[in-house]
Amino acid sequence: MISGLAPLFVLMSELAAAGIVFTERGIEFRKWPARPYVPTGIKNKRTNDQSRALIVGDRVRWNNDINDQGTVTETNWAGVTIKWDNRGEQAILHNDMILVERATTKLM
Questions:
Q1: What is the mean pLDDT of the chain?
Q2: Whole-number Cα distances in Å, 104 to 43, 52, 69, 107
Q3: Is the pLDDT of residue 70 over 90?
Q4: In degrees rounded to 5, what are phi and psi of residue 94?
Q5: Is the pTM of this model over 0.70?
Q6: What's the pLDDT tens digit per position in 39-61?
């Protein structure tokens, strides 16, 4: 069981992001009709298909950080292997590619 206030804070943040507020009268929507809501952890989730579309030689980056990039060195049915510029090689399952995205290349 997770103790402390962190889980409560996360829950309250998600509810507030969904437009649900707690008032003296009870639970209310900030606006009606409620706006579409996507949980924080899913907002920018990469799909398995996006991960499977990577090919050897593709440049990727971690968590949208241009200083944390790497090159795809292997792909298979389960995931990809990435050689990071600032650290070693890492094998990542397709389902765990949420924070990895294809790096954009700018021609000067």
A1: 77
A2: 20, 18, 11, 10
A3: yes
A4: -55, -40
A5: no
A6: 555 445 556 778 888 899 999 98
65 and 34 in a single domain? The answer is: no
Are 89 and 73 a contacting pair, CB within 8 Å? yes
Number of domains present in the structure of the chain = 2
Please provide residue 12's backbone torsions phi and psi, each rounded to the nearest 5 degrees. Answer: -65, -40
Pairwise CA distance, residues 2 & 9, whole Å? 13
> Is residue 52 domain-shared with residue 86, that is, in the same domain?
yes
Distance (Å, rounded) from C-alpha 78 to C-alpha 100? 15
Is residue 66 a part of any domain in this protein?
yes
DSSP label of 65: -
